[in-house]
Structures are given as C-alpha cells and as structure tokens.
Amino acid sequence: MVTIQEISRITNFAPSTVSKALNGYPEISQKTREKILKVANELNYFPNATAKSLVKKKSNTIGVVFEVEYGLNNLFFSTILEAFRKQVEIKGYDILLLSNNTDNGLNYLNHCRSKQVDGVLIVSKGSNKDAINELLESELPVLSFDPEEEMKNSIYSESYFAIKKACRYLYNLGHKKIAFIQGDLTNYIGKTRYNSYMDFMIEIGNEPIVIKGLNNSLYTYEEGYKTMDMILQQFGLPDAVCSSSDLMALGAIAYLKDQGYKIPDDVSVIGFDDIKMCEIVHPKLSTIRQDYELIGKKACETIISMIENKITEFDPVIIDSELVIRDSCKRRR
Amino acid sequence: MVTIQEISRITNFAPSTVSKALNGYPEISQKTREKILKVANELNYFPNATAKSLVKKKSNTIGVVFEVEYGLNNLFFSTILEAFRKQVEIKGYDILLLSNNTDNGLNYLNHCRSKQVDGVLIVSKGSNKDAINELLESELPVLSFDPEEEMKNSIYSESYFAIKKACRYLYNLGHKKIAFIQGDLTNYIGKTRYNSYMDFMIEIGNEPIVIKGLNNSLYTYEEGYKTMDMILQQFGLPDAVCSSSDLMALGAIAYLKDQGYKIPDDVSVIGFDDIKMCEIVHPKLSTIRQDYELIGKKACETIISMIENKITEFDPVIIDSELVIRDSCKRRR
DNA sequence: CGTTTACACGAAATCGGTTTCGAATAGATT
DNA sequence: AATCTATTCGAAACCGATTTCGTGTAAACG
Known about the structure:
The structure is a homodimer.
Chain A: H1 4-11, H2 15-22, H3 30-42, H4 49-56, E1 61-65, H5 75-90, E2 94-97, H6 108-114, E3 119-122, H7 129-136, E4 142-144, E5 155-157, H8 160-172, E6 178-181, H9 188-204, H10 221-235, E7 240-243, H11 246-258, E8 268-270, E9 287-290, H12 292-309, E10 317-319, E11 321-324
Parallel strand pairs in A: 1-2, 1-3, 3-4, 5-10, 6-7, 7-8
Antiparallel strand pairs in A: 9-11
Helix pairs in contact in A: 1-2, 1-3, 5-12, 8-9, 10-11
Chain A binds a DNA duplex through residues 1, 3-5, 13-17, 19-20, 23, 27-29, 32, 47-57.
C-alpha cells in the first residue's frame, strides 16, 4: 500500500504537510496541495483506515449484534439489517458483525472497544442478556431494536395501537372468538402486543383466548404451529387468530390446514411484520407492516447522531406501522 | 481503555516485556509473567485491535461482498452468510460488510486494503463486475460463491448433475414436456444449470421449453412469475417445470394457480436451493438442497487456509447437492 | 529600512501495540 | 577466581496516520 511517507519522499514535503494537503487543511498553499494530490492520485493512494482509527479513535464502523440461532437466517431481521446497511453505507460507515466470544473473555463490550467500533446496533439478542446489558450501560452509543423493560436507546415499530387495529378489524368482520399468539413476553415489544390484545378483549367484553405461560421467544413458524395446536385443544376452534409475527401466523395456518380447516373461510388469520413471504403464500397474509426502510433509515440517523454528538441516551424512536389487508381474513358467515 | 503502557507503569516492567508476557513469549520468566497477567486481569485489559492490526498487518477480519438490491434481503444468501459467520466466529475472525463506494473512489479493493481486511468472501455480486474483478486479481485471498466464467477461487454447489437428477425425476414421473426457468446466464452457476437442462432434453429427445434470451439475473419470485407467463404463452401448459431457484419456482406456482391450475395435479414443479420457505408453502416444494452448513464451513476453512498460507489461487470447492422430494411433483395422469 | 504580521511548511510527539537487538544478571564451567 | 553461557528484560524503532507547535519567509506596515 502507498503510504503518506512515500508521497512525502517523492514530493519532498513532510508527511505532516502531505496529510494536511490530503485532508483539506487551509494552511496548505494551492500549489503544493496540487502537487501532492497529483502524486497521490498517480500512486492510487488511500489512507490506511487502521492507522487513522488508531490516532483518531474513530473507526467509521458500526457494530451489529445478532442472535446466533435465528439471526441472519430470518427474513425479518435480515430485512432490517439490509435497510440499515444501505443507509449506513451512504454515510461512509462500515458494518461489523459482532460476536460474543465468552471463551477468550472477549464479550460484546470488550470486542467493541477492542475493534474501536463507533456505535452498536442491537438487531436481535439471544440468551446472553448480560453481555447486552454491559453494552447498554457502557459509554458506547448503542441503539436497540429489541428493547428490554426500559425503553431507552431503542427504536421499534408502534405495536400497541397496531394490534388493537388488527383486532378491531377482525371484530368488525364479525369475529368474536379471537385468539392471540404471543411472542417473547420477556421483552418490551412482545409484552406490548400481548397487553394490547388483552386490553382489546376487555374492551369488547370477551374472554381472551391465549395460552398462559407460553413464551414464543423466537417468533418462528414452528412455534406458531405448536401454539395453534394448543389453542385448539384448550379452547376449540376460534373465529380468528391474531399473531405476533408473520412466521407464527403461517405456522398457525399450516396447522389449521393440516386439521382440514380452510383459511380464511373457517378461520381468519392476521400476522405482524409484513415479511416478503406474505405475498408469496396462499392465501396472501393480511398483516401489520413494519416500515423496514424507515426503521433502517431512522436507526442509521439516530446512531450516527449519537456518535457525532456523543450522546449515549435518548428517547425511544417509534415508527408507525400499518394494517395491510390481503386475503387471509374474511367476514364471518 | 487500559493500555500496555498502563500495565507497564504499574508493574514496572517495560511495555515490550508486558507485550511478550501477554502473548506467551518463552523468554519471560514465570514470576514476571504472573505479575503482569494478574494486573492485566485486574484492570480488565484487552488489546487494542486497531493498534495490533497496524503493526501486524492483519486485522482478523474477513470482508463480505453483497449485492445491494437482493442482498441480505434474500433468504438464500443470508442463510449462507449465517452459516459462514458461525464458522468464522469460532476461528476468531470478524465479518465486515463491504461496500463499493464509487463516489469517493473507495472501491472494493481499496476499501479492503484500507481496512486491512485479511480475506474476502463474495457472496453475491451485482452490476459492478469491474470492482469484483479487481478484487479477484488482487493480492488478497478472495473466495467467490458466485463465480464468473473461470471457476478459480470459488465455492459452489454441484449443479449440473443435480439439475439432471431433478429432470430425470420429473421424467420418471411420466412428464415429457418439461419446462425450464433459467437464472442468471452470465454467471457460471446459472449457465451450468441451463446447460444441464438442455443436455437432458437432448438425451430424452424432447424439445426444450425455455424462453430464449431471457436472463433472470436475480432469481426472484417475480421473475419466476413472469417467466411462467411467457412459457404458457409461447408453449402452452407444460407437464412439469424445473426452476433454477426456489423463489422462481414459487413465482411460477403462483402464476399457475392464478391461471386456475392445480399444483401438483396439473403441473409438477421443482425448485433449487431448499430455502426455509419450501416447507412452509403449500404444496411443500420439492427441490434440490444446497448444503448451507457445509458451504459455510468449507468456505470458512478455505478462506482461512488461504489467509494463513498466503495462497491466492486454488481449485474450486464443489459441494454436493441433494434432491429433496416433497409435495410439488406428482406422477402424470 | 526596521518591525510586525500572515502564511506556509516541518519537526516531533502521539495513538497502542510488536519486534529486534543489545545488555545485565545469574548460574555454570574450567 | 575468571570466563562463558543461558536467561530475562528493556531501549528503541516501527506500523501509518494526525496534530501541535514552532520557525522561516515574504508581504505589509509605520
């Protein structure tokens, strides 16, 4: 690689002068700047980002935390990451996929510090909540898409009114027995959706149809399938199902189909997320759309603003979500 | 962050001694090593990876190149990346998502050099083939999952015999009019699948049913949908469809369903990839499975061996693929 | 013409590590 | 006791940038 010292030797200017010329310092005359730039271009010079990071204490890199099990291999999370990446790239940052290597003691936080990561986006977190909390409480700018109890430093889709809107929609189609498939009740989003459903059932004065004590922490197809099984056993066939994720909704539909029911003729089902699959399956899944592009964009803006203004705490960013009506819900006969 | 100099001050050993002690050099006595390690642990010392990279000229980071359009937002590619990541993590490397910023002249290669990336995995490439070729011809260890004409430095699933097996399977079910949905004919994989299909049709002495001149470069659902439309218009209804990707197969199925046909009763369809969705859709899609875990593992092994042994060229690594029979194909009535 | 001021550039320190090579010490050898 | 050897450690250079501060020169001023 071409270094500043090489340009220095060739142009007979000191390394410091070369550096200043390349970085647009005003104290360099037009003439010498041109000479230096000319040589730099001829040699195809690009600064060594490592050296730069070392002295500037800034790497132009944003770390991303991902659960191992259902990480990238999950359209929902990977869609967010992709949207985020697109924005981040524009701003001149790179994305480093972080690991939490407990073997060598290099947990998330130490890893971030070691690699001089400027900020961190937590897309999804697995079992290692301790390592995550260390991150959140550190001096680093951290943004979480998967907030815990307290909601600080987080970005997420509005869920409370969204679930109510979905339930209201089902109710207005004539459905009374509306079942709910919950997600991860240990995090804020999962809890909010659950509470919203419970509140709605109280409003309309119906008994909630939900499996108590169940925690579908991964929001997967398989969990949806099993939950639907339990619902049928415990409550019999509901009129409609409201699910905390599209994948679980699809799992529920699969179970119902396996039992010989028709969707939406026998049961209406609505999901949450609007992953790309919704339009591919049959019937096309009605759902609540999360605005991935906007989430990615806002997440990027927020985290870069945190980095540049050195803030480590801010109010949650809440992105509107929208009811998308397709073919999986039908008026009750 | 705690530095070596701090430990040096506290222990009264020179920085060089501290460094050696921490890195297990034999010339350090047991006594001083213990003293130094004790202090390092107490202060929760971790080496600054940036500084280390600078002097060692090795960052323990592997760059990953992804197409922007259909990058992470594609279960196929993200599954590979996830498998790769899992392996790479174990070996102590991080993954940096690379961008090709032509604005500031920081193309892939310069970006890699600047960030001191040790090796590169090309998962999918978009339109900027020049930037990719620069990478391939550089001094960096590069591994491509999406090889061009020449197949050097690549890893991919066996496709030629796989497509033949799929076609043979359809043929043995009694189908004569077997249509083919091609993928990207400008790259090796796409071409191989196409050629395999064409050879098979010659073998069985039937006319190929394929849209000439069509290039489905993104292997998407929408492309499959459109292609199926064109096939019906140009050739009428085939007995079976062999697709170069699952997503295109699903698109084709959707089109056929929209036209009122039943799958697999009227048309048998087989895909390629075995993305997770295959088991979720109805009917469950028969397909050719790519062994993602093995691809990830081999890719990791290969690239790390390239890095450690400083080889930049090697023969292609070919991963076996397997026919998976589900519900989307049926014996011809 | 002497002094001030602005401008342009360079020397040197720094970031946090690694590595080479030389020196001091302790122990072994004759 | 003198010499040799092995062991252990430290000084200093280095990786490739940035940044502070000082200096020399030319222009501007009285």
